[in-house]
């Protein structure tokens, strides 16, 4: 059992909110930080969205335990307050290197000496912003998959200066909050999961952006020919357009930037994937695909 009791999560969006609930549901004292009251105010709606999934996906789901988790979660827009007693800080802000550097500088200046630092970055190299913490030996990566309660991998990856002691502690912490700990022994962008997943998603996006086929047809051929449960555009809906667009823009690749611009139209319309009930597909209240959204189709 680790000494990690107080957990602070930076970022309360689609994945950040899931991380908050995953830790709170497993008995940790959790504080969620975001930059505005408007963003924090969206959390109650996210809890109810998650509740339906927890109820459906977890055979031993406990309604009272979920309510107690919600009641225990604190939120703030003040960084010193957020980290004042943090044993572990998990950062889940957008995939932008300058933003992560700025956030980690502020966290490092305010966090107590005991704090362990973890980034949930999906594609950036943690060592590129480890120094900003001021304590790179206590800094590493803990990567969650979207729909955390169901796809409950916890990839723990060292950065260049990570002390092995903290690597072992965070692996144990991952197990404590219901994850399957996955040790990643050498730093690599994308860890294991995204190292496999992102090239596949990019291939689907390229087929679409280049006018080769429409999203539902690309997904259909993948599902039919491989027996896989979902194609790339269903996965884009699960990941959420915000995350996908940020990663695509950061790549610098013209095709992927064009795809990000297309995703931005969905974001601006409030239809950015499964969490909104619509992305490339529409979804029912249980998250089941209803039908493709034909406005995405090439004419």
TrEMBL record:
The UniProt catalytic activity note for this protein reads: a (3S)-3-hydroxyacyl-CoA + NAD(+) = a 3-oxoacyl-CoA + NADH + H(+)
Pfam families cross-referenced by the UniProt entry? 3HCDH (PF00725), 3HCDH_N (PF02737)
Spell out the InterPro entries in the cross-references.
3-OHacyl-CoA_DH, 3-OHacyl-CoA_DH_NAD-bd, 3HC_DH_C, 6-PGluconate_DH-like_C_sf, 6PGD_dom2, Mito_3-hydroxyacyl-CoA_DH, NAD(P)-bd_dom_sf
Sites annotated Important for catalytic activity: 143
Kindly indicate where the leader peptide sits in this chain: none
Q: Which PANTHER family match?
A: HYDROXYACYL-COENZYME A DEHYDROGENASE, MITOCHONDRIAL (PTHR43561:SF3), PTHR43561
This entry's Enzyme Commission designation comes to 1.1.1.35
Query: Which positions fall inside the 3-hydroxyacyl-CoA dehydrogenase C-terminal domain?
Result: 190-283
According to the UniProt record, what class of enzyme is this?
oxidoreductase
- Transmembrane spans: none
Keywords, sorted A to Z: Fatty acid metabolism, Lipid metabolism, NAD, Oxidoreductase
Gene Ontology MF, one: (3S)-3-hydroxyacyl-CoA dehydrogenase (NAD+) activity
Report which superkingdom the organism of origin falls in.
Bacteria
- Please give the name of this protein: 3-hydroxyacyl-CoA dehydrogenase
* Pathway assignment: Lipid metabolism; butanoate metabolism; Lipid metabolism; fatty acid beta-oxidation
Which one GO biological process term can you cite for this protein? fatty acid beta-oxidation
The 3-hydroxyacyl-CoA dehydrogenase NAD binding domain extends over: 6-187
